[in-house]
Design brief:
The complex is a heterodimer.
Chain A: E1 3-5, E2 9-13, E3 18-25, E4 32-37, E5 44-49, E6 53-57, E7 60-65, E8 70-75, E9 84-91, E10 101-103, E11 107-112
Parallel strand pairs in A: 2-11
Antiparallel strand pairs in A: 1-3, 3-8, 4-5, 4-9, 6-7, 7-8, 9-10, 9-11
Chain B: E1 5-7, E2 10-13, E3 19-24, E4 31-37, E5 43-50, E6 53-56, E7 65-68, E8 75-79, E9 88-95, E10 105-106, E11 110-114
Parallel strand pairs in B: 2-11
Antiparallel strand pairs in B: 1-3, 3-8, 4-5, 4-9, 5-6, 7-8, 9-10, 9-11
The chains are: A mainly beta, B mainly beta.
């Protein structure tokens, strides 16, 4: 089967750093994406890793290790507005073409003052 | 640039009725995807269009679900007849032709409640 495992909840304080881990087991793999979702609204793209290593985008960084089937999202200088659900998603492939996303169950991040 | 839009935002129907959801992708995006999230579970892929053609419909749960994308612009997802387990949030996403950098842009979703 296909599965992506994430912690269900994480709590941190403003200004801190938090890491959300994701381990995956999928039949195909072309990359790992991270999405943010506030209050059940539109998932918003944060980051994408196709190759091993770290990708940095402002306060957010994402890491991938394909040999370990593992990635993480790192959020620095946490702000209250970062309270949201965070999803990892594997970019799968079908028939040689694009490219559905297989989502994890999501991590609810609560940032406290 | 306008984002992905979906209509309606909410729909409440009774079991056995028909509902049609609409998605307008970002202009110029050939790839259109439907996903849904049922209560407490992960967001799951339903199907993928490239222009007006169905590229992958492996996630469609059964033949009560019919998706169309006539003309390769907006798409509709019809559920007929609706069942209780169809309740959830239906998301649409779009992307341009894929390159090394791959992003799907999601709409706000349609929250469907079947009573």
């Amino acid at each position: 089967g296909q599965s992506l495992e994430q912690p269900s909840e994480v709590t941190a304080v403003e200004g801190a750093i938090v890491q959300i881990n994701c381990t995956y087991q999928t039949s195909g793999f072309y990359g790992l994406s991270w999405y943010q979702q506030h209050d059940g609204g539109a998932p918003t793209f944060l980051s994408y890793n196709a190759l091993d290593g770290l990708e940095e985008t402002g306060r957010f960084s994402s890491f991938l290790s394909r040999s370990d089937s593992y990635g993480y999202l790192l959020l620095q200088e946490l702000q209250m507005k970062d309270s949201a659900s965070y999803f990892c998603a594997v970019r799968d492939h079908y028939g040689g073409a694009t490219n559905k996303l297989i989502f994890g169950t999501g991590t609810l991040l609560a940032v406290q003052p | 640039e306008a984002g992905v839009t979906q209509f309606p935002s909410h729909s409440v129907i009774e079991k056995g009725q028909t509902v049609t959801l609409r998605c307008d992708p970002i202009s110029g995006h050939d790839n259109l995807y439907w996903y849904r999230r049922v209560m407490g579970k992960e967001i799951k892929f339903l199907l993928h269009f490239v222009k007006e053609s169905k590229q992958d419909e492996s996630g469609m749960p059964n033949n009560r679900f019919l998706a169309e994308r006539t003309g390769g612009t907006y798409s509709t997802l019809k559920v007929q007849p609706a069942e209780l387990e169809d309740s959830g949030v239906y998301f649409c996403a779009s992307s341009p032709e894929s390159g090394l950098r791959y992003t799907q842009y999601f709409g706000p979703g349609t929250r469907l409640t079947v009573l």
